[in-house]
Amino acid sequence: MTTVPQIALIRDPRFLEHDTGGGDHPETPERLLAIEQQLCNGPLAPHLVFHSSRMPQREDLLSFHSEAWLFRFEEAVLAGRTYIDHPDNQVGYETYQVAQLSAGSGMVAVDLVEGGFSGPVFSCTRPPGHHAEPGMPLGFCFLNNCVLAVRYWQKEYGRRRICVLDFDAHHGNGIQTAFDKDVDTLYISIHEHPSFSYPGTGYQEEQGTGPARGTVLNIPLAPGAGDARVIEVLDGPVQDALERFQPQCLVVAAGFDAHRLDDMSGLAWSTDLYRIIGFRLGDWAARFCRGRMISILEGGYHPDSLAASVEAYLAGQLSAVTGSEGNSHPGREKSGEKQRCL
């Protein structure tokens, strides 16, 4: 019997309980529902295995966030506040718990990889995290999922040299804050130029400070940049940086709001570009990290293009794992128990 390669999808129905107030707020539960429906009804369905998230330990949250922020966050939601600091950061009564579960999903992903799971591992989670600073929320983000996953990986498994690669349309200011002075990490961000895009950080000149100078690689793109420009930077400065750094693990801040149909940025990426990105990352993970890579969902606010782009991204990774470049959907055999979506 043919063994079907697997994709681990980390999800939890409680992610849907984070209430952003409806209306015009773009970060909605429908984002996750669209992704799961696309995956469960498409050619990747036979490959899916679902895993639930879990609550992190307090000390895991404190590896980046301040105690003062955690108390302020919890108090705000218990008091019935509808946002914290800015209307972008909408909260409901369940948000504090859901944000912790969102952070925990990255830790579950790490455990899966260290436990021997060899296929793509994708945390399909919300709220996102890469804008969250140690003591404040920003840009829909409350806890920095990627940073917390890195610190967990280092603490629990002793993997010191970790690269975070962020292809969200917006610069991950919170990730850069965490690793700006850290010689053991490499942060690579491909994003729309901060002169035109939130949060106004991520200039090419920002390269890390002190002994860690050179461990931050910001690649800002002009509005309208499309597939050819992204492939150029992947095969040039991104690959060169990985060659120099030789990471033990990859954590991917997987945002899909650079798609040409998503009005949250001025970039013009195609759905198929995300397949190419997935293949490149899968190949690099095998070359540099013995396959140790996790991906954590960040942005992407046009449900149809988000869902299609996630599918393409995972198909690209699966192709890298199975050695079938150009075949977006390898191994269509049924794998037994039917998977269930939210």
From TrEMBL:
MF term (GO), any: histone deacetylase activity
Q: Where is the composition biased (Basic and acidic residues)?
A: 330-342
Q: Which SUPFAM superfamilies match?
A: Arginase/deacetylase (SSF52768)
Region (Disordered), start-end ranges: 323-342
Domain Histone deacetylase, which positions? Answer: 25-315
Which Pfam family name is an example for this entry?
Hist_deacetyl
Give me any GO biological process, just one: epigenetic regulation of gene expression
Q: Which CDD domains match?
A: HDAC_classII (cd09992)
Read off the InterPro entries from this record.
Answer: HDACs, His_deacetylse_dom, His_deacetylse_dom_sf, Ureohydrolase_dom_sf
Family to which this protein belongs: Belongs to the histone deacetylase family.
Instruction: State what protein this is by name.
Output: Histone deacetylase
